[in-house]
Amino acid sequence: MKRIYSAMTQKIISLLCCVILWGAVVSAQEAQKSDLQKRAEALNPKENVAQARSLFIQAYHDYSRKGQIREAVECAAKASALYYQENSYQEAFDLLRESDQLVSSSKQVNAEKAALHYQMTRERMQMYIKMRRAESAKAQLDIMEGQVSTAGKETLKNDLLYQKAIYFYTFGHNAQGNAVFQEMASKLTSEKAYDKVDEVYQTLIANGRKSGSANMVAQAYSSYIVWKDSVNALKRADEIGALKKQIADNEAVIADKDSALSTRWVFIIGLCVVVAALAAALVIGAIILLRYILLTRKQQKTIKLANESNALKAQFISNMSAQLEPTLRKLDSRQPEVQALLDFSKHVQTLSELENRPADAVVEQEETQVATFCESLMDEIRDSVKSEVTLTVNAPKMSANINREMVSHILRHLLVNAAEYTPEEGHIWLEYKKRGQHTYQFLVSNTGEPIPEEKRDSVFTPFAEIHDLTQGDGLGLPICKQMALKMNGDLTISEEFTKGTRFVLELHG
């Protein structure tokens, strides 16, 4: 876990640096690195932990002798991370203490010393996090705040916010973690550093997945979706603002030209006046046409960007779910939390695949006997309903062309939900009704407490709220909704049914 957090921290700090100067800074740092440090960084730490650690320690002592304090501290931090990667905590603490003494005895100014001490304190905090010692980790976090205040560096302030988010999410303080992470994201968003914020969120999600922290994955992903939608709105607003400014500039130019032409028209007689008027009309018509063309192209580009953004979001969700599942398979699936996260990963991937499916994709259909089909689905829930609940199937003995896989999935999910929420002595119906030559409906109804009107739209919206995954992830109905849409139909809640809840699956042949 520590190695993951350390890698994450280094990545976040790099994201917060100025993009224009970054190449020059990296080149200068590479030139200053000793051969020992370069050899250590060239090794794969997973395969050569001891060798890489030894080289970093040698580089640390070499830099210390030469008075290169900043480089020495960097190597000490990396060596300590490799120590506690193998749970050698005492050695890591000893090395960090020695590095702190080196910084304290150096001739660096106080601000620079505080920045160097910050690196050491951050490593200690991450060790305590790995050891699950919340109070000790919090004490180091408090020390880091004082060091950042003394150093006065913006990059350290941003890194401190990120370290706070790691601490709060790790020890279950979700609200505080959300607050500090939102502060960091808002700061970068206000600077319009959208790509940096996007990569920060994706890094947090990836590291939460690698560390097996379902809480961190769920919290970060939820915040990411909300932020992504808000940024898309900001980008569109910027584009519209730029377009309006361009239109205003063009109108100002037209107005100036009209004014000049009006002055000349006074001195033109007869036919010249008519010719000038026709010329002005042609110019205005051409400008209006040009403006219309530009506006149309701009709108097409905005729509294309929005579609690409949605496609990328769906692809990201699918990739994240696919990468998450192999790691979860290694955990004990008998644990409710692990099984819940496995189900959540599967549902997320299914929803992403449905959303990313082309709108014109053909959905295969087969002729199905409606009455037999409905009876078999109702039989699946007979053993799971409460005492004296009546089950009724009202379907004619006729056939219909449907996609059995998708329709079965939707109706089965609705019936299972009905079995769960229908009280004793209640009633559950499954009905089929033909509404037109090419339109028919499946209706699933149950008595009991109806879904409140204010929640009827949100139940079909994925990730509308954070769920306890062990109690369900809230993706069942959104998946059913997407399946209905892919079959050229829809899934809605009937407003006319007042005895409980009625879902209507409407399909078009």
Describe what this molecule looks like in 3D:
The strands form 2 sheets. A 5-stranded mixed β-sheet has the order 2-4-5-7-6, with helices on one face. A two-stranded antiparallel sheet has the order 1-3. The protein is built from 17 helices and 7 strands. With 509 residues, the chain is α+β, with helices and mostly antiparallel strands.
Gist?
The chain is an alpha+beta fold. It is built from 17 helices and 7 strands.
Question: Which key features would you list for this structure?
Answer:
single chain, 509 residues, alpha+beta, two-stranded antiparallel ribbon
Compile the SSE list and pairings:
Blueprint: H1 2-15, H2 19-32, H3 35-42, H4 49-66, H5 69-85, H6 89-104, H7 110-130, H8 134-151, H9 154-170, H10 174-190, H11 194-210, H12 214-265, H13 271-329, H14 336-355, E1 366-369, H15 370-379, E2 390-394, E3 399-402, H16 404-421, E4 427-434, E5 439-447, H17 476-486, E6 490-493, E7 500-508
Parallel strand pairs: 2-4
Antiparallel strand pairs: 1-3, 4-5, 5-7, 6-7
